[in-house]
Amino acid sequence: MYPYLNENYNETRFGYVCLTWKLYAQQNLHRGMIVTFYNPMKPETMTIKRIIGLPGDMIHTKAPFPTSYIRVPPNHIWVEGDGTKSLDSNTYGPISIRLVEGQVTHILWPFRKAQRVKWWEHRLTDRLAATR
């Protein structure tokens, strides 16, 4: 989640501790939220990404996704990392909401970055072509 959760590319897994809300994690999902989920390509790996699209949304995709646009299917979300080289839904497609394990609510460590995650302040890019 470079640069939002870390200043240096690809160091999130070692340098940051985040608090996640796991109770009802698959409910009340919103665009801009940061969620943790099991990677669909490596099911043993927990991943952290931002929700860009909800079921029914039309998303303008990026390479390597094979089409320019996709409508997010029912019970799925479109997730992307904040960095340009992120492995996200543009690589593995929309993910099932059932894979979501938590909603990131706070950054706890490093202490100088400790804060509530204000996902609602994140400006969604032009990636959202149409909402449901």
TrEMBL record:
Lipid bilayer topology: Single-pass membrane protein
Alphabetical UniProt keywords: Hydrolase, Membrane, Mitochondrion, Mitochondrion inner membrane, Protease, Transmembrane, Transmembrane helix
Location of the Peptidase S26 domain: 22-62
Species per Swiss-Prot/TrEMBL record: Diaporthe ampelina
CDD domains in the record: S26_SPase_I
Molecular function as annotated in GO: serine-type endopeptidase activity
Subcellular locations according to the entry: Mitochondrion inner membrane
Family listed: Belongs to the peptidase S26 family. IMP2 subfamily.
Keyword presence, rRNA-binding: no
InterPro entries: IMP2, LexA/Signal_pep-like_sf, Pept_S26A_signal_pept_1, Peptidase_S26
Keyword Cytoplasm assigned: no
Primary location class: mitochondrion
Gene Ontology cellular component terms for the protein in this record: mitochondrial inner membrane peptidase complex
Gene3D superfamilies, sorted: Umud Fragment, subunit A
An annotated GO BP: signal peptide processing
Descriptive protein name: Mitochondrial inner membrane protease subunit 2
